[in-house]
Prior knowledge:
CATH architecture of the largest domain: Alpha-Beta Horseshoe
CATH class of the largest domain: Alpha Beta
Shape: globular
Structural class: alpha/beta
Number of strands: 21
Number of domains: 3
Largest sheet: 6 strands, parallel
Amino acid sequence: MNAPPKTFHVKSFGCQMNVYDGDRMGELMAAQGLTATDDQFAADLVILNTCHIRERATDKVYSDIGRIRKESGKLGGNPMIAVAGCVAQAEGQEIVRRAKVDVVVGPQAYHNLPDLVARASRGEAALDTDMPVDMKFGYLPARRRVPPSAFLTVQEGCDKFCTYCVVPYTRGAEVSRPFAAIVDEAKALVDAGAKEITLLGQNVNAWDDDGKGLHDLIAALDRITGLARIRYTTSHPNDMADGLIAAHRYVGKLMPFLHLPVQSGSDRILKAMNRSHSRDGYLRLLDRVREARPDIALSGDFIVGFPGETEADFAETLSLVDAVGYAQAYSFKYSPRPGTPAATMADQIAPDVMDERLQRLQAALNRDQAAFNAASVGRRCAVLLERKGKLEGQLIGKSPWLQSVHLLGDAAIGDLVEVGIVEAGANSVMGERRNAPSLT
């Protein structure tokens, strides 16, 4: 039995949706009267909000649990440990058995976290990995204070069943939040300080509510006074509807940035991945998006070394990268996830081959990102300032194209300022404040 915790720390891994979930769990615990602390080793309750996408994710969780207990013990502490998120969903009772943690809660049940913590304090079992039909969002507290750029989950789960992916098993089937509830939360975020909202979903452009599509939701947010910017991620090519493409032309607050994962440039590998789109279809889709918004910055995801990938297949990926010219991209070596079809496929690729291919791919992606940044020099744009930089008086924000912009000058976090891009680096750009007031 543990004493009821008085302080807590949330440590989130993985995607933006996990960041959103971690923030909401923190708000839940604060609403119970607990105090947040930045020191995970001094907290009475440590919540590990886990991600199951990458290799050895489960091993990392067990390693973190051991380190927290060791370092907290040096301070005389014995924290309650809660494992949340996708690893919790996948492992369930096994985490309790192996690591003797106090609470295990899946990503669709974290609204029950206060009750689970109370049960653990009484020495009772505290595990909940149910995927209830009723969504958790209605049970969460109101948003009170948020950063200038805030996340808003609108859709969860995935029905695509890509052969490498665990999301359908850990997050469940595609479920969309109601239109009115999302708009209400967006207004609350703006009231709490947000000037930019990023709509989140495992397959965000599959969001649907009684015939309304994501473009309808974006149009509604466009009418919110005080909201300056709208973004969304992550999208699937097959759900990039005509209305959403048109929104990039007509909705002024929708930023010129699109993250659209492709994963491979080879049709043969795309079929093995069950991606349900082709290389040519993907490229034609990007042509339509660029026609709607010529200055759009494109981002993507890539997996190298998928089972059966030949050098010719990989060359197709490199040629697709050359054809697109991504402003940003994420690339990973294939890692088998237990329970997914790809994990048992023949022709698994040797690690050294994957390493070499990833290096070549990242060299091409880094080249194109640097070229996009270099082409930005001389542009004037609005930058939303989000945090302090490392230098005295330096602030860092985001351009409309999601570039990190470093700025020295008289401004404050949360300001939307007019900036000229004067210098480009590989991963960020330098801006100078122009003679213009803060924008609304």
